[in-house]
């Protein structure tokens, strides 16, 4: 199979999904109305509620939801062969993710721009709201631990990425100063920032930084994880204009450039996919494809985190209700394209099947490192950029993604800890709450072993939690549709599928963690399993009640006559 | 439209789009910080009227007329549905 064919079929499926299925959802299911006064207009305050151009809002929404997860998930999941990952990403984007993201936007817009957490109280009940908080807490916790391991693995496997990774912080600090202190024009700052970042990539490629195997009694991986958490802690308490804002911006530009380079190289070099369509020669210890595929690839197929962004910020900025189709559905398509790029890089970026099998010698052994190696050789073949430099570009892109998500994750988790403490009647400051967040995340990272690999072991657990959150969001959307007497099948089928796969995966993982004697992860698995079963019961009850009640729209119609 | 004007229009649009991309994700963070500062300022100006001894009320009382417009939003944000001050009946 030629990778261009794979790319074209994938892109065609997603674009067709946008052109046809999202139109069906917008007209028949969500019934978006251009005249509906969105919260951005009704509650316009210049703070949260600001009507925004749909293309700008899409850019904002896409860069907020796109992180390292759509790269990590597919890069691990291709171990079962390229076909299952390809099908789950494309079909998942069209029928699951797009519908979910658009639905979350619609649900929030129809409820004064309120977040999913707040809506769960209304539609699933007060217990549903508490459940939502628990799931969000676990998700953020796992994001921090998992992404620290992803970055440290990359820094060890691609030492040429060390200088650009840390140098990007200096570039962001300089961009922040140039913007607010020296008032330099943004196009100039953007060009200078991107040039500086790529200059650092060139320097890094010449000067790889390899740490000694042991530093202060810690392995190189463990050392990087510790450094990353210290950095994330500091970054999360600094004023946002100083580091986070310019860092997000530069990373956003780098995302578009990196994706352009990768897809451009695939089109020019048209490499052959060497990985099997269905891998029958699975390494020992590889879990069964069902249900693990559906939780290994979460972002890129369906992601609960998108619902948080859709209802947290994007819904408050939607200029017209009909823009939700472009912002929500097409935002999911953007993420699907990133996941598709990761599948192509990890299956077509190797010369022979033997080379590919050597990298995918065990479950979790491929991952982002395979994306960097495979993608690097595709860029080399397509654009003539040396292999090492291509790999450095991709490694830096993946690290910056993961680091931005970690920065935000620690910051959001800090707010959650402060809120939880306030509910318990204790007031804690920025410093204490940040330390609490870091200690818990470090405990998780090192809970599975002294090498800090816990973050990667929990990856499928991260997937299940993310799907669980998506299930909660879909339950809210389903209850709303049932109350209105609208077609509910497009939401109900993905909802049942996602929740059953999550529960199945959690049960399978209980056995895995028990066999490995991993008590921390076993405990977390049990907590998430209880939450999942709870979601199913609460959502089922809420939907049954909504089904029994007379349809809101029919009631409104009869009241008019 | 001349080539120069077309170029200038494209440059302006690009700059505006980039600016929006830079500002949008943190717009609410900044606006909220600005509003918090404003709230603190109003609290200081109105301290004496609210029964809190204010050593600089001689100066702040002069600012009262300037803050009347913002007073209603402020007391609602502070969780008070009606104006807490008798001499300012905004609602």
TrEMBL record, chain A:
| Location in the cell | Cell membrane
**Organism domain of life:** Bacteria
State if Repeat is listed as a keyword: no
Check the record and name the InterPro entries matching this protein: CstA, CstA_N
Keywords linked to the UniProt accession: Cell membrane, Membrane, Transmembrane, Transmembrane helix
How does the entry describe its membrane topology? Multi-pass membrane protein
Q: Name one GO cellular component term.
A: plasma membrane
Q: What is its main location?
A: membrane
Q: Which GO terms describe its biological process?
A: cellular response to starvation
Q: Does the keyword Protease apply?
A: no
Using the record's annotation, list all stretches that form the CstA N-terminal domain: 2-347, 363-504
> Where are the bilayer-spanning segments?
6-26, 62-80, 86-109, 130-155, 161-179, 186-203, 223-244, 256-277, 289-309, 329-350, 370-403, 424-446, 458-482, 489-510, 516-537
* Entry similarity comment: Belongs to the peptide transporter carbon starvation (CstA) (TC 2.A.114) family.
Q: What is this protein called?
A: Carbon starvation protein
Protein's organism: Georgenia muralis
UniProtKB/TrEMBL annotation, chain B:
What Pfam families does the entry give? DUF7990 (PF25952)
Going by the entry's taxonomy, the superkingdom of the source organism is recorded as Bacteria
User: NCBIfam families per the record?
Assistant: CC_star_Cory
> What protein does this entry describe?
DNA helicase
Q: What is the originating organism of this protein? A: Georgenia muralis
């Amino acid at each position: 199979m030629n990778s261009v064919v794979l790319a074209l079929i994938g892109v065609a499926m997603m674009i067709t999904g946008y052109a046809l299925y999202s139109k069906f959802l917008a007209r028949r299911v969500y019934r978006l109305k251009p005249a509906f006064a969105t919260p951005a207009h009704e509650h316009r305050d210049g703070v949260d509620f600001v009507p925004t151009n749909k293309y700008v809002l899409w850019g904002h929404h896409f860069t907020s939801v796109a992180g390292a997860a759509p790269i990590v998930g597919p890069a691990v999941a291709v171990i079962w062969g390229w076909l299952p990952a390809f099908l789950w990403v494309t079909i998942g984007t069209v029928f699951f993710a797009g519908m979910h993201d658009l639905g979350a936007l619609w649900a929030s817009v129809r409820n004064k721009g309120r977040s999913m957490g707040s809506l769960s109280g209304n539609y699933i009940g007060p217990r549903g709201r508490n459940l939502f908080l628990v799931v969000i807490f676990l998700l953020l916790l796992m994001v921090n631990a998992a992404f620290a391991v992803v970055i440290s693995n990359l820094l060890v496997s691609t030492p040429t990425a060390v200088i650009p990774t840390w140098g990007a912080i200096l570039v962001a600090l300089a961009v922040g100063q140039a913007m607010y202190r020296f008032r330099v024009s943004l196009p100039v700052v953007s060009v200078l920032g991107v040039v500086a970042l790529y200059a650092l990539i060139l320097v890094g490629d010449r000067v790889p930084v390899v740490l000694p195997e042991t530093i202060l009694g810690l392995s190189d991986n463990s050392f990087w994880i510790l450094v990353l958490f210290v950095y994330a802690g500091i970054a999360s308490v600094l004023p946002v204009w100083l580091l986070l804002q310019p860092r997000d911006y530069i990373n956003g530009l780098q995302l578009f450039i990196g994706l352009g380079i990768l897809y451009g190289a695939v089109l020019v070099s048209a490499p052959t996919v060497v990985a099997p369509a269905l891998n029958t020669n699975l390494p020992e210890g590889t879990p069964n494809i069902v249900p693990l595929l559906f939780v290994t690839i979460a972002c890129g197929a369906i992601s609960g985190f998108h619902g948080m962004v859709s209802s947290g910020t994007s819904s408050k900025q939607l200029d017209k209700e009909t823009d939700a189709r472009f912002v929500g559905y097409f935002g999911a398509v953007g993420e699907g394209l990133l996941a598709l790029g990761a599948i192509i890089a990890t299956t077509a970026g190797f010369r022979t099947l033997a080379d590919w099998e050597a990298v995918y010698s065990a479950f979790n052994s491929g991952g982002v490192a395979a994306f960097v190696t495979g993608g690097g050789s595709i860029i080399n073949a397509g654009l003539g950029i040396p292999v090492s430099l291509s790999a450095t570009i991709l490694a830096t892109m993946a690290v910056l993604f993961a680091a931005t998500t970690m920065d935000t994750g620690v910051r959001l988790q800090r707010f959650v800890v402060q809120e939880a403490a306030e509910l318990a009647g204790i007031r804690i400051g920025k410093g204490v709450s940040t330390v609490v967040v870091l200690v818990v995340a470090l405990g998780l990272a090192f809970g599975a072993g002294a090498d800090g690999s816990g973050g990667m072991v929990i990856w499928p657990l991260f997937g299940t939690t993310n799907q669980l959150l998506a299930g909660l969001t879909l339950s809210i959307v389903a209850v709303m549709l049932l109350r209105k007497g609208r077609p509910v099948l497009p939401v109900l089928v993905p909802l049942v599928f996602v929740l059953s796969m999550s529960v199945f995966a959690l049960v399978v993982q209980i056995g895995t963690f028990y066999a490995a004697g991993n008590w921390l992860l076993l405990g977390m698995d049990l907590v998430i399993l209880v939450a999942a079963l709870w979601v199913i019961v609460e959502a089922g009850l809420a939907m049954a009640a909504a089904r029994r009640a007379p349809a809101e729209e029919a009631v409104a119609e009869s009241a008019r006559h | 439209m001349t080539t120069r004007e077309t170029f200038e229009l494209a440059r302006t649009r690009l700059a505006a789009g980039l600016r929006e991309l830079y500002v949008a994700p943190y717009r609410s963070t900044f606006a909220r910080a600005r509003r918090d500062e404003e709230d603190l300022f109003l609290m200081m100006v109105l301290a004496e009227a609210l029964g809190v001894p204010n050593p600089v009320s001689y100066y702040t009382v002069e600012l009262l007329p300037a803050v009347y417009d913002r007073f209603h939003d402020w007391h609602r944000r502070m969780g008070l549905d009606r104006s807490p001050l008798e001499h300012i009946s905004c609602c």
